[in-house]
């Protein structure tokens, strides 16, 4: 995992329900691992959002959604940039 991925992981984990952090971490680590072998597609981003967003505290939903929407080129790695 590179530093950008670690930063993104921490960003998400700090905004999820405490009881859902383990689930969010597993999901994101799977995304990072899969991403090494194939680019993210719009379908994959939608799938990630559908699994990740319900784990996010309501007060952080907009910030997390914005971060996910930040990736217009789905062939680029999912990072904080």
Layout of helices and strands:
Elements lengths: L2 H11 L7 H15 L6 H11 L8 H9 L12
Helix pairs in contact: 1-2
Q: What radius of gyration results from the CA coordinates? A: 12 Å
Would you list the SSEs in sequence order as H and E? HHHH
Net shape: globular
The termini sit apart by: 15 Å
Count of structural domains: 1
How many extended strands? Answer: 0
Helix content: 55-70%
β-strand amount: under 5%
- The overall pLDDT average reads 83
- The structural class is mainly alpha
Q: Main beta sheet: strand number and arrangement?
A: none
**Poorly predicted ranges:** none
Q: Please tally the helical runs, counting DSSP H or I stretches of 4 or more residues.
A: 4
Protein name: Bacteriocin immunity protein
């Amino acid at each position: 995992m590179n530093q950008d991925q670690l930063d993104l992981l921490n960003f998400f984990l700090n905004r999820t329900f405490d009881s859902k952090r383990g689930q969010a971490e597993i999901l994101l680590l799977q995304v990072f691992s899969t991403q090494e072998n194939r680019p993210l597609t719009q379908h994959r981003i939608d799938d990630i959002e559908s699994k990740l967003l319900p784990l996010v505290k309501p007060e952080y939903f907009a910030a997390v959604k914005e971060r996910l929407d930040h990736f217009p080129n789905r062939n680029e790695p999912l990072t904080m940039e």
